[in-house]
Every structure is written in C-alpha cells, then in structure tokens.
Batch of 2 targets.
Target 1
Amino acid sequence: MKKNKKIVLAYSGGLDTSIILKWLQENYDSEVIAYTADIGQEMDRKKIIKNAKKLGVKKIIINNLKNTFVKEYVFPMIRGHAIYEGVYLLGTSIARPLIAKDQIKVAKKFKAFAVSHGSTGKGNDQVRFELGYHYFGPKIKVIAPWRIWKLKSRTDLINYAKKHNITIPKDKKGAPPFSVDDNLFHTSTEGKVLENPKNSAPEFIFQRTTSPEKAPNKPTYVSIGFKNSDPVSINGKKLNPEKLLEKLNQIGGKNGVGRVDLVENRFIGIKSRGVYETPGGTLLLIAHRAIESVTLDKDTMHKKDSIMPRYAELIYNGYWFSKERFRLQKIVDLKRSKVNGSVKLKLYKGNVVIQSRMTKSSAYSMKKVSFEENKTFNKSNVERFINFHKKKLK
C-alpha cells in the first residue's frame, strides 16, 4: 500500500476510537485523519486534539454540524412524528446519517481511500454508518475494526492501550462502563446493570433530566411557535434551530420530561435495553401534533399516521437516504405550509399538558362544533351517512 494513502476515522477522542486509530496505523500503511462531528454531544475539543496528536495524527478535523443536524434531520423527523416501537424518538438513529455524509465529504476532500468507524459488531450503528457511506461514497472502502480485529474483550482493549501508552479513563478499568451516546437531541445509556431488564435504572445514569420527584413543585409554561410545520420560536422569541432545541432541552429536562426506558428490537435481530432522555424532542413532538390538529384536514393527518411506523423503522434501520424514506417525507410534508401557529404547554413533574392551540387556520371551525344551534352543519345528512356505512358491514 502506498504511503500517501489516507483513512478518515470517525474519532471521539475516547479510549475505543483511540485504540482503533492506533490499530489502523499498525495494520494499514496509511495516514489516519481524525474526524469529529460536533452535533451537540458533550465533548472536550482540547482532549480530542491532544489525544489524536499524541498518536501522531497530523490532520484533526472537528466540524460544527449542530444547526444542520436540527434543521435538516431532527425537524423533518418531528414533522413525521417518528417514534420507533411506540416510545423511542430515534435520537441516535437520526444522527448517524449526517455524520456519515460529512465524513465521506472529508474523505473525498483529502482523497482518502477508506473511512472507518468504532461501532461494534452487535449494534445498529455499523449499519447506519455504512449505508450512509455507500450512498455518498460507494467506491470508498469501509474499515470496521470491531468486525475484523483480534481484540475480543474489554481486557484485550485495556492491554492494547497499555502497550501503546493510550490513556485509559479511570471508569474504564476493570468492568466495562455504561455505553453512552449523546447529541443535541437526546442521550442514551446502555449496558452494565441495564442489561438485565429486571433491574431498575439507577438515578445517577440520567444526565439531562431531573427526576420527576425532584422537579419544581410549580408548573412551568412554555409556548412553541410554528411556521411551515417547523418550530421557530419559544415564548414569542425567535430562535435558530440549534438554540431552540437547546432551550427546550433545558426547560423539559428541568421538569423531568422525556425519560424512556425500553427494550428495543435491533435491526440485526438482537433485543437491547436502553434508557433515553429526549426532553426537548418530547415537547416538540407533543406540540407539533397539537398544532396539526387545528391546521390539517383529517385525511392528511390519518395518512401521516398510517405511514409513521414504516417511516420510523426506516430511520431506525439506517435508511435515511433511501428512495422510500424520501418518498414518505414528501407525504409527511405535503401540506406543511398550512401548519402555522403556536401551542402552549404546561410542564409538571414529568407530565406535559396542552394548554392552548392558536392559529389563523380555518381547518377548525368553532361554528361547526358548537353545541349551540347553528346552520353551518346539516345534521339531516348524518342519517344518510350512517346508512351508507351500514352497507359496508355486510
């Protein structure tokens, strides 16, 4: 292999990807470029740069994708009301396509022959990354160390790190740590005590939500404004997508909103138990459904609901860039220009209650629904309507 060959590694600066970086250097006669996508996760830029330089990396790229992530990935998903298996708001799933797209962009810029990631051989992320890689760079080689190297256990990794003088975080000595993924949309926690579904999730694992018991004793009110089906303001103040989600995370998290504990069915056939925190996303989903209820017609709403399970499954499985997801997104967004107005929510100890819906839309008619006698709705037509549907019972 020529010495001018390059590999772009999705690099977090932590133990696992540092080991992968060194392993790539040892096993491929190539320069490794360390690539990090900043999508709002808790990260230490200085640590990433320091650890990469310590391993001899010359090119360290950290791209701020937070606003793009929220505007072009989270918001379209919220418009589709995507929920996997009834509860999961797809926080990890929706981030991987963007990272893959940008990583391939970097690989093309530096004429790299390969990209690499640190996803394990049992997880969903390897599929999500690699479907994204294939869509944008089908000729670029994918190196997945966890599927091909001889390191089989946490002990193997620790020993490898010691051998190559790679810093080992204190919580990673001995037993494996919790597996944590976070971004601007959510935080997920898996592993250790959570692997046994009979065990309750310990309170200390929650990172962005207060427990409902310790949440404020007075309710918090928040109004979310929508334009063309996307959130644009909080309490009347316009904010860009990144800042808006950050603010809702703070408000929701403080009030214990957005916790989910589930056992999910992974794409590759394994069941996995995880704890998710999506405070801002939970508020957006509830508010968005509420504003659609007074701005969209029944057929449009029901069509969206009918395709949602498949839409969510495509995102979960890594098919964000598939023709089918693009087709379903067109259905989701067919009448988005009609979805305008604001929704006021009351937050109290983990609960979210809709207080009001305000819109200039004429989809909801107070005259037609009023119990007061009026001439806008012809009740004599109802009998014919019922008789027509009686025939369908036969």
Target 2
Amino acid sequence: MARLVMKFGGVSVADGQRLRHVGELVKHFNRDNEIVLVTSALQGVTDSLLECARKSAGEGKVSNVIDFIERLTERHNQAIVEAIKDPKIAQEVREIVIQKLNELEKAYIGICYLGELTPRSLDLISSYGEQLAAPVLSGVLRDMGIESQHFTGAEAGIVTDSEYGDSRPLEKTYDLIPQRLLPLKSVPVVTGFIAKDEKGIITTLGRGGSDLSASLIGAAIGADEIWFWKETPGVMTTDPKIVPGARTIPLISYREAMEMSYFGAKVLHPRAIEPAIKKGVPVRVKCTFDPDSPGTQIVHDDILKVDVIKAITLNKNVALLNIAGAGMIGTPGIAARAFSALAGAGINIVMISQASSEANISMVVEERQLEKAEDALRSEFPKDIVKEISDNHDVCAVAVVGAGMAGTPGVAARVFKAMGESGINVLMISQGSSEHNISFVVASKDAERAVQALHSEFGLGGERK
C-alpha cells in the first residue's frame, strides 16, 4: 500500500461539482493507498478576500463587508448543496462554514475601524479561503463513505517564521507533522498555503504556498509520492497555447523542474518542491480530467536521454535593466555594489550578463519591480562612475532547459542558429555553469516565434530535424 499526498488547486475545487469530482478521485485511489489531501481555496476566493480587505481599510464601509460576507456564504452554501447529499453531514459542514465566516466578518469590521492593513492582517484574511474549503471537501469525502477530518496547516504541524505574506517553514515542522497526522486512520484534508508562527499567529507561505504545504507534508510523513493535481496533462515541453504540438514530459529531475518554474513555466513553483528534494520523495503532476494518465514524474536525479532539451519556457513579466559607464572599467566592486543595492531594495534578479570590457552590466528583473530597481541603482552610483541607467519593458525571457545539455557540444549554436534563421534579434544571453539552461532576452513581438522555432529545432513535439 502506497502513501500518497494529493494537492488540489483552486480550479479543481471551484464549485460543488468539482469538489464532488475530487471526492471520486480520492475514492478511486483510496482503495489501495493511504492518502492525505491538501486543498486550496475555492477558485478566486483568496483574491476576493484580499480585495475586500483593501476596500475595508480604504473606505471603512461596514455595509460593504456585510454584502461581501453574504456573497461568500452563498458561494460556499451552494457548493455544499451540490457536493454533499447527506443532510446531516451538509448541516455539520454548514455550521463550521458559518462559524468561520462570522470570525472573518469581525476581522473585516476591525480593519474598517482601524483604517489600516498590516501584512499580519492580510495573512489572517487570506487564510480564510482554505479554512472554508477544507471542511467542505472533508464533508464530501464523509458523504462518500470515506472517513475524514479537516485540519488547518498549523493543526497539521506546519510552523513558520514570522515573515508575514511569505513565511518559511521551520525545521521542527518535519517532526510535528507526523505527530499530528500519523497513523493515517482516515483521509485528512489539510488547508494549503497557511500555517502559524511560534507565537501562534497565522502566517501564509507566499507564492506556490499550497504546493509547498503538500510538499512539506509528503516529506515529513515519508510519502511514496506527492501528487499535484492540475488542469494540464503534466509538465509540458512548452506552453500549448504557443505551440499546439507541445507534449507531456514523462520524467524530469527536480533541477530541471526548478529551472522551468523559475523561467516562466506555471506548473510548479521552485520553493514548492524544496522539501521533496530534501527527503528524496518523488513528485508527480497529474491531470484531474485524465486521472489514469501517469502525467509527469519529477525525481531527484538528472535523467539523461537522447533529447538534450526537455522544455522551452517563456517569461513575459520581465524587464531589461542596463547600467553603463566608462567609469565602471577597472573600478573594483561595481557588480557587488549593484547587487547589494538591489538586494537591499528587495529586488529579485532573474538573469545577469556583464560585458568583458566591464563597461556594461545587464540584468533582467521582474517588471513590477523595475522602477524600484532603477531608484536603488541611481541612489547607489554617482554619475562619474555609472553614466547611464536604462531599461526596456518590451521584452521577454526565453529559457531552453534540459540536463542533457551538460557536456553536450553545439547546443548553444543550435539555439542561436534557430533565432538567426527566424530573423529574431537576441538582446541578452545568460548561461550558468551548471549547463542546465540557456536563457536569453528577445523583444516581446518576437517571443512566441522564438519558442516555436526552438520547439521545432529540438524536435520536442516529436518532429525530427
């Protein structure tokens, strides 16, 4: 009997019909396996919770809060009606949901009166999406004859630091989770995304948080596999909206998956699989609409195969930032000062490239952080050292990813030959010593053509060059 952790995202638990479908999937796999479920909030709920919080702080209208709570109540009650047939179980779940919504309403009214919204308050508010979803999903399982209990992330043993909005799990989490969840006598339904710090205050795990919750639980209880249920057939060779012939990748390594996520693939966030890496637990991405398909397995070690390239990713939410000046030549510590200034401003640098003349450093940053990045650099450098700080919003980052690139000659030549033949100008190039990816920047107008040309060049859709 295998021990599985299954995580379901917001689309998979969007409404009562989808929740019922999740129950059917669990019932199908529960016959031969021990299962722990991790759930996101119902689709769109977390965004609406945060929007109401901001309006409450800005406008202070209690009447708006009451209207919003009514809509949220109706949404979850409708899901209960659609997903749970047994009236007794439905009523039990409804009472839990009402209790949670009463707590939420009081929190909103407090924000209205205070007129301010702290990171700690935002964590409290955003936690309610999962807190409302977990009892409903647990009720669905009980309605289907599967024993189940619901837990918050904190009740399941996830303890974090106090970095509200983007907290990190503490090492003690790995000891606490087995104490709280094992032995598995039923199917626990655990809220993803949320936890508590050591003071008992609710925290959230940031971007990819529900996936991280599942990964933590799987690593801590010694799961045989962690399954992330998505709406896609698995990890794809590229975005099928750009290349309709994109295929599912059956097997990739953790490192390849992290490179893909970092450079724009939307399947898994790099942080989400860190605990699995740590404990060597295989991860599988499966499709909710095709449950018997194996999907994509992500394993610890690099899988070398004839195809040196596994995937092509595209990140559209980036900008190019250049610093230049003759005064940079031969001046020690310019790069260190630039990167320290950006780090101090909380800027994430996606890619770096420096000319051998030392007169120019190019960086790719997240587009939303561009203005902040420029301000930080202008504050750091006098005009006699850095003459020009320029930017380009109208760019995209393309990454070619694959463990088979390491030690294989001619991969870069093929990449840039494909760009040349397609008439695409490359604005910046970056390659790490790991040789797991070659990333470069092109104009936004050329980005999708670049992906299509590379997908064809390396035969990722099954075509042969």
